[in-house]
Design brief:
Length: 385
């Protein structure tokens, strides 16, 4: 009898332990640790590590992260998202590096009804039953283009040339520039494209210079974005050159070198955190992110992509706190729904790039507080008024 009582007690304690263990909140994180866009995916992973170092529990509930590599492949992103939801039973999804991969992942999130934060720019996700399920952290290109065009107008620019990627991101940057420029009475006079894997863009640069624009905007990101900058410098172009937030990294500065001197880019405030006014609420969080990043990764951040992932973590943990207040239990459909509702009602969540506000009507959560203009001076970024 005593043996039976002990066995029963052991069984109960094991059941309680299992119950307690599953009370943790499980996050599925997908990124491109390998493949063509690993230069973005690896910083994304470091940003999530910084987020976990900054806040690894919510409301007394620990957070467990399951990280998978999609190898910069949309098909793998879909496969990973399904595995995380169907096999690992995650409560939340965050990912991934690259717009095509993120669109693929967001489609799965909506289909399987799991809330998700996208950390690459995508179009408004298709709404599903009971949705929407996905919000996104990166700045809308329209908002960034408006900041660039405002600076062009101050410099009395009348015409602008465009050299960008021959893909969906290039399309988005060109279309956003064209729309903003048209409103300001500025004409976009060409549309030159190149592949991310190209090793030369001299033909595109020569065509653009021949059109005699007052300024040129480059719609390429990361190290491939340096190609037009280098070629323009080689051909002696002296007009203003504008870049984008995807160029904010030491890798870009290393590859572009002195050719990038004077380049103007729109970006999030985190890029120049120390230069922000003390009254800016983003400054405090941006500096805290840098400390958490160094703690998690053993060095200082050198890019803007890790900060997008960190902000995704901040938005997630804020939503999780409010979902737990609704007394929903992690690991249940009710918790996922509570997370979704909390996510879609996020208000004034301060991150490193922006102050986030989400609603069911829009997956974009940022306003003009998320955008600053910076200029490369002596190999560093300087905040412009």
């Amino acid at each position: 009898m005593r043996h039976r009582i002990c066995a029963a007690a052991t069984a109960i304690s094991l059941a309680l332990a299992a119950t307690t263990a599953r009370a943790e909140i499980v996050v599925g994180f997908v990124t491109g640790l390998s493949g063509a866009i690993s230069s973005i995916g690896i910083p994304n992973a470091k940003g999530i590590a910084a987020g976990a170092a900054y806040r690894n529990e919510v409301g007394g509930e620990p957070i467990r992260i399951i990280q998978l590599d999609d190898a910069s492949d949309p098909t793998a992103a879909v496969r990973n998202a399904r595995k995380l939801v169907e096999q690992e039973k995650v409560d939340f999804l965050i990912g991934t590096s690259g717009a095509p991969q993120t669109v693929a992942m967001a489609t799965v999130a909506a289909e399987l009804k799991v809330p998700m934060v996208a950390i690459s720019p995508i179009a408004e996700p298709t709404k599903s039953d009971g949705g929407p399920w996905v919000v996104q952290i990166p700045h809308p290109q329209k908002l960034l283009a408006q900041g660039v065009v405002a600076d062009m107008k101050r410099r009395n620019v009348k015409t602008v040339g465009f050299i960008g990627f021959s893909d969906a991101l290039g399309d988005l940057m060109h279309d956003s520039l064209t729309a903003a420029a048209q409103e300001a009475g500025i004409k976009v006079i060409n549309n030159e494209r190149y592949a991310r894997t190209d090793t030369s863009v001299m033909p595109q640069v020569l065509k653009t210079i021949a059109a005699r624009p007052d300024a040129i905007m480059v719609g390429g990101t990361a190290t491939p974005g340096a190609l037009p900058v280098l070629a323009l410098n080689e051909r002696g172009y002296k007009g203003p050159i504008y870049g984008n937030n995807g160029m904010i990294s030491t890798d870009f500065l290393r590859v572009a070198g002195k050719a990038a001197e004077g380049l103007i880019c729109p970006t999030g405030p985190v890029a120049v955190a120390e230069q922000l006014p003390d009254g800016n609420p983003i400054k405090t969080v941006a500096l805290a992110y840098r400390a958490a990043y160094e703690k998690a990764n053993g060095g200082k951040p050198t890019d803007g992509f890790s900060a997008y992932a960190f902000d995704g973590w901040m938005v997630f943990t804020d939503a999780a706190r409010r979902a737990l207040e609704a007394r929903a239990k992690p690991g249940t459909p009710a918790f996922k729904e509570a997370l979704r509702q909390a996510l879609m009602s996020s208000k004034e969540v301060v991150g490193t790039h922006a102050v986030y506000n989400f609603t069911p009507a829009s997956s974009f959560g940022v306003d003009e507080r998320s955008r600053v203009l910076v200029k490369i001076e002596q190999g560093g970024w300087k905040l412009l008024p």
